[in-house]
Amino acid sequence: MWFTYTILSVLALGIGYTLFKFPALHNQNRFASTFWSNLVSSVIVGVIILFFSPSSLTLITTNVVWFSLLWGLVFSLNMFFYISALKEMYANVLFPIASAISTVFVVGVGFLFLSDTVSFMKLAGIMVILAFVYLLNKKGGKIVLNKNLSFYFLGIVITSFFVKYFQKVLIDLSGDPIAVMLPEYISASLFAFIFGYIFYKKNFMTALIKKQEIKSGTIIAVPLFVGAYFLVSALNIGELSQVFAIHPVYVVVVTLLTSLFFKEKLGFKKLLIILGIVVGIILIKIG
Prior knowledge:
This protein is mainly alpha-helical and 287 residues long. Helices cover 80% and strands 1% of the residues. The protein is built from 13 helices and 2 strands. The protein has a two-stranded antiparallel sheet. The longest helix is centred in the middle third of the chain and has 27 residues, at 147-173. The protein is globular. It starts with a helix and ends with a helix. The mean pLDDT is 78.
C-alpha cells in the first residue's frame, strides 16, 4: 500500500508544482498566491475532519502545533522561492536541479551533523547528480546563474531540508495525516500573510483580493493537498528510504507537463539529463 500511496503522491505533486507556473507567468504577488494555496488546503482538511474524521482533533497536541508553526514558516518560504525562481527559469530545469541539490544537501547534513553513514551508492549518486546538474545548466561553457537565481536556489535548498525534517517530526508525533495537516496549512497561510504584508504593505492587501491570485492559489492547493496527504500516508506505513527512493520522480512529471501545457522547450538531450538526475537521486535514497 505504501507504494501505491507514493505513486499517487508523485503524480499529484508533479501536477501541483507544474501549476506554480500560473502566478509566475501572470506576474502575480507570490505571497498572495501562497496564502490562498495554503488557506484553501486548510479548508479542505477542515471539511474532511468535520464530516469524516472528527477524532483527529484530539491528536492535535501542543507539540504538534509548535512544530506545525515551524513547518508552516519554512513551507511558505519554500513556495515563495519556487515561484520567484520560476519567473526566471523553466520549470523543467528548475525542479530537477532544485530536487537534486536539495537531496545532496540532506545527505551532507546527515553525514556531518546526524552521524549518518555515506555508502558507496550515495557517493555515486552525488557524483551523478553534480555531473548532470552541470550539464543541464551549462550554456556556452558557463554556468547560467545570476544573483537572484542563486539566492532563490539557496532558499529552496535550505527550506526544502527543513520542510522534510519538520514533517518527519510531526509524523512521529502523530500517526494521523489529517491531524498533522490542519495546523500545518493554517500556519503556512498565516506566515504567507505576515511576510506578504511586511514586504508589500498595501500592495499585498490589494493583491490578496484579486481574482487571479485567489484562482491561482486554489488551483495549486488541490493537487498539492492530495500529494501531501498521500505522501504522509505512505510515510506512516512505509520506510522513509523506500518512500523517498521513488518520490523524487515527480520532477519527471513536472518536466513532461510543463512541456505539454506551457510549451517549455524539451529536447531529447535535456530529457536524458533530467532522467540522469533522477537516477542519481534514487541512488542516494537507496544507498
